[in-house]
Amino acid sequence: GESVGLHLPTLSVQEGDNSIINCAYSNSASDYFIWYKQESGKGPQFIIDIRSNMDKRQGQRVTVLLNKTVKHLSLQIAATQPGDSAVYFCAENPRSNDYKLSFGAGTTVTVRA
Amino acid sequence: GAGVSQSPSNKVTEKGKDVELRCDPISGHTALYWYRQSLGQGLEFLIYFQGNSAPDKSGLPSDRFSAERTGGSVSTLTIQRTQQEDSAVYLCASSLAGTGGSVQYFGPGTRLTVT
């Protein structure tokens, strides 16, 4: 399953399929990006981050891709599992060496059994 | 190891009352942040503490909101004369350093309901 365009608030994916969550960021000067996962009733949980000097970074079952030309970030989840159902947020550091993160509105991922 | 903890987990208060929300950051983390998350929305930055430096309060929505961080560790967010629009989840985060590229780790949040 894939969220297309700039941003879709929901994504439904079949268990076992790959998920792609997209995020468009606003500031071309941003040099650090993070993906968070938030389950119902819990705080955001760090998934993976990437700096602007990289195009791709891989973690366990997750890959983040960064396209600075079009200011686009994506999170790919391999072999999606029911435990992956959550809201996913991308966040950017709008200014280099700044602590402030600017969060997107989030994408709700629902995994179908 | 222990993560960021917050208390209470839920708070229901009447309009006009004051509330205090507490955050215990991860031990050794010098930076502490407060965010607000309204229903179905992203996170809104409120305030930031780094070591002994003056806090960045630029995200506080009004002068009814204030925060303290004692001894470089525990922080309290105070909302005076609460209003219904203050109802939200208040999230605290901490990071090892207060610069870009330092991962912020979040607590479970305090759900505030103003009736």
Task: Please tell me about this protein's structure.
The complex is a heterodimer of chains A (113) and B (115). With 113 residues, chain A is mostly beta strands. Chain A is 0% helix and 49% strand. In chain A, strands 1, 3, 4, 8, 9 and 10 form a six-stranded mixed beta sheet that branches. The mean pLDDT of chain B is 92. Chain B has no helices and ten strands. In chain B, the strands form two sheets. In chain B, strands 2, 4, 5, 8, 9 and 10 form a six-stranded mixed beta sheet that branches. In chain B, strand 4 and strand 5 (43-50) form a beta hairpin. Chain B has 115 residues and is an all-beta fold. The interface between A and B is medium-sized, with 27 and 25 residues.
- Helix/strand order of chain B, N-terminal first: EEEEEEEEEE
Distance between the termini of chain B: 37 Å
How would a textbook summarize the main sheet of chain B? 6 strands, mixed
Shape of chain A: globular
Please state the oligomeric state of the protein chains shown: heterodimer
Share of residues in helices of chain B: under 10%
Q: How many extended strands of chain B?
A: 10
How much of the polypeptide of chain B forms β-strand, as a percent range?
over 45%
Q: What is the helix content of chain A?
A: under 10%
Shape of chain B: globular
Approximate strand percentage of chain A: over 45%
How many helical stretches of chain A? 0
Largest sheet of chain A: 6 strands, mixed
Total number of helical segments of chain B?
0
What is the alpha-carbon Rg of chain A in Å?
13 Å
Termini distance of chain A? 14 Å
Mean pLDDT of chain B: 92
Q: Name the biggest interface.
A: A-B, 27 and 25 residues
Number of strands of chain A: 10
